[in-house]
Amino acid sequence: MALYFDRLVCLSFLLLLVSISHTEGELVALSKADKQIILDTHNVLRARTARGETGSQPSAADMMLLEWDDRLMEKAANWASQCKVGHDTPAERVIPGHKWVGQNWAGGHSTNLSLFVDLWYVEHNDYNFAAKTCTPEKMCGHYTQVVWSRTLLVGCAAATCPGYLRILVCDYADGGNVGTYPAYESGSPASKCVGEYTYTSGGLCLRRDQCAAMYTGGGRIGGGVDGGGGTGGADPGSAPSPTTKTATTTSAATTTTFDPWDGWTFDDGYEYLHGEEAKTKRSRVRRGTDGGCRCAIHCLNGGTLDSANCKCSCTPDYYGTRCEMTCSDPEMFRSNCESDPDACKTFPMFCPKTCNGCKAGDIRDKAVVNTDGVLARLP
């Protein structure tokens, strides 16, 4: 592990720690299994935070299930191929329908891509949720992006670069780390799901169409073959195959085989996702749910629940996923909403009644590109 960490560089959002000259690298083609492992790792860690199992961090009331997007992967690949430490500009990674796309970057001497995501997540030790700040002189921006609740899409790319066996770049839409907003809303898991994400499983908010993919397929998280990028295909309830140690460091005299997971324990002393622990972790996630999806919403302010479709029918005075919002234009904007003919073009969010009759907008991006059919799930 010392060897690995000696060569590891992680950069938090908007913070550049190291400058290196521009050098073209070699992109690593990600297989479907690679993509699945990266996405699974994100969703397992988001679910862990949602359930309040992340150190001292509170549980999350609105943590969404992430899904894979090839458009973000392509943007990440454009940057990863340049082998520059740090981040590209926000304009270079934006995709249609998303004004702000976030980014995490890491580089090191391991080909286990899920390990990079885990290392971002470990920064929770330096995140003060109440103050919405990092510990002084510490980084926590990777963690907050991984668990930014309203982020719905992720796409990542890997490359081999001078000085690094692998770098991993992940782009997120919509991006997190915005102003002084918290990474998520604290509260009972999935108690404040929004938009079409009205179902829950494992503490996450998800759409009805995503329920079928939950716990299906199999890939292992973090226990994949070093150098192979993951296994996939195993039954979720079966024991994973032993970790194969193939990553090597070579000198003129010797070849040393090492496993970046050996002896490494995370925040609670848990031998995280290593060997048989992968099975234990998966079982623990599954035991914490009813084995599938359930409707997560409760209607407020006199609204009635259509349980068959998991939707609230609100009274005329309220709207929103849970009928939680008053159907009126805020008093401070009301006169502008009613008198300005361009109000609904320039600031529709301030005139919900005038502009759209208090209809809650959809938050799902229906233009997602996922050519390999990577499953949004909890393995």
Automatic annotation (TrEMBL):
Would you indicate the residue range of the signal peptide? 1-25
Q: Using the UniProt annotation, give all residue ranges assigned to the region (Disordered).
A: 226-252
Gene Ontology CC entries for this record: extracellular region
**Where does the source fall among the domains of life?**
Eukaryota
* Family annotation (InterPro entries): Allrgn_V5/Tpx1_CS, CAP_dom, CAP_sf, CRISP-related, V5_allergen-like
- The SCP domain, residue ranges: 33-180
Q: Which keywords does UniProt give here?
A: Signal
Biased composition, Gly residues: where in the chain? 226-235
Question: Does the keyword section mention Disulfide bond?
Answer: no
CDD domains in UniProt: CAP_euk
Q: What is this protein called?
A: SCP domain-containing protein
